[in-house]
Amino acid sequence: MPGAESEAPLAPGVSPCCFSAADFDRLGRDAGFRYRLPYLSGAPRDPEALCIAEGRVETHALGPGLTLAASDIVVHHHYEATSQASPRFSAIVVLQGQAQAALGRGDSVPMRTHGGLSAAYGDGLSMTGIHPARQRLRSINVSAAAPLGTGDAQLDELIAAALRSPAGRPRHWAVPPHLVQAIEQVLGGQWQGPLQALLCQGVGLQMLAHALADAAPAAPPLPSSRERQLLERVRERLHDAPEEHHTLEALARLACMSQSTLRLKFRAAYQCSVFEWLHERRMALARERLAQGLSVQEAAQLVGYRHATNFATAFRKRFGVAPSGRERR
Question: Class of 225-319 per CATH?
């Protein structure tokens, strides 16, 4: 359920919590959402007394910038929650009930029961969750907030790529049956304490993986036979002259391609960028020549580094040890 967060435990045998209009205002300030009651005429006389929804909500911090919110509530009054915070990527699964989501002023998209929905929003584009009254709503929401700092550079890049993707409608994605069962366990609250936290961690990361896989752009087509021959020109040039100052513009001319095409085709062929390949070639050659007795300064110059200190930093980052003339493979 977008936006609704509380510290109330989601566990069997615990009395449900009543969320008043005042509670929603407080939740909105804490979670970066603005709540509306569009079908309630006038402002509530006593915001603390009017019960908008009743049930249990639990939140878990999965890591820096990653949050899971699990909700099992009965909605008494139709409400809407619109994001006001920094950019986020959200993955949502509804197990029971009806809800809708909309980006900006776009048309709302229904959240399908046992189906996933994902959306990237922020930087002027808001997301609104719409929750009709007189229903039980059981849902789970995993959100990743920018700026990213999960501690996993690859995960950060996947989320950043999703946030950079062109804005459009929220996207549906398929939830496999085993993940539905795991989400049922989270909402059922049979486990408590550290075990429940571990379960939420696993479920949250699985949801994020499925949503990000669906949001990822399609892989570029593999290079043709002719394109592979042209790419080999580039690879051979980098292999034979790692010490030179190569530019993407010059390498694209060598490959008879545009710079953007070279980027895409080279990565599709070699599973790394042009300059990642060059860096790996330089480090491997330097390590080999160090083992043969070259000094650090000589090895740095051999692979195109003007300053030995910069070379030493790159070498240590790649191999985990400082370069030495006595280095052995």
Answer: mainly alpha
DSSP assignment of 212-224 equals HHHHSPPPPPPPP
Q: Which two tokens stand for residue 326?
A: 């006595």
Prior bond to 12 cis, omega within 30?
A: no
Per-residue confidence band for 73, with pLDDT thresholds at 50, 70 and 90: very high
300 contacts: CB under 8 Å, gap ≥ 6: 286, 306, 307, 308, 310, 311, 312
Contact status, residue 138 vs residue 187, Cβ threshold 8 Å: yes
CA torsion through residues 114, 70, 107, 119, sign: negative
Cα separation values, 72 from 205, 211, 250, Å: 20, 22, 59
Neighbour count for residue 48 (Cβ, 10 Å): 11
Q: Is the dihedral of CA 123, 91, 208, 173 positive or negative?
A: negative
Each residue's pLDDT tens digit, 92-106: 999 999 999 998 888
What is the CATH number assigned to the segment(s) 17-215? 2.60.120.10
Q: Dihedral, CA atoms, 278, 280, 284, 290, nearest 10 degrees?
A: 80
User: What's the rounded Cα separation, in Å, for the pair 137 and 197?
Assistant: 22
Q: What are phi and psi of 203, to 5 degrees?
A: -65, -45
- Which of the two residues, 49 and 325, has the higher pLDDT score? 49
Of the candidates 190, 185, 226, the residue with the CA atom closest to the CA atom of residue 203: 185
CA atoms within a 13 Å half-sphere pointing along the CA-CB vector of 132: 9
Sheet containing 171-173: order of strands: 17-20, 51-63, 66-75, 135-145, 88-96, 115-121, 171-173
**What pTM value is reported for the model?**
0.62
The domain locations on the chain are 17-215, 225-319
